[in-house]
Specification:
Length: about 100
């Protein structure tokens, strides 16, 4: 339980009994349990929402990288096609030097 031992829990129970009283202790324990449950649920919801957002961002970056990669490949293909179709690309150059 995060470093809380049985002796600390017993001390906490005795203090709660003295502060709240034996008649109101069960209701106080239920109220604390509800608050604890709500806080835990809110924390889990926040973590799940954050993880979903991180996953969406990661997927968006992957798609952008794939699009950029396809665009680069398309440009390379266009350049190769243009070079292959140019009239002087098939003939060897005769340099006067």
């Amino acid at each position: 339980m995060g470093g809380v031992g049985i002796s600390e829990l017993m001390l906490l129970a005795v203090i709660a009994l003295l502060v709240v009283g034996p008649q109101r202790l069960p209701e106080a324990a239920r109220t604390i349990g509800r608050w604890s449950s709500r806080a835990r649920n809110a924390w889990e919801s926040l973590k799940a929402e954050f993880q979903d957002e991180m996953d969406r961002d990661h997927n968006r970056r992957i798609l952008e990288a794939e699009k950029a990669g396809k665009a680069e490949k398309a440009e390379e293909a266009e350049q190769a096609t243009a070079e292959a179709q140019s009239p002087d690309s098939h003939e060897p150059r005769n340099d006067p030097n």
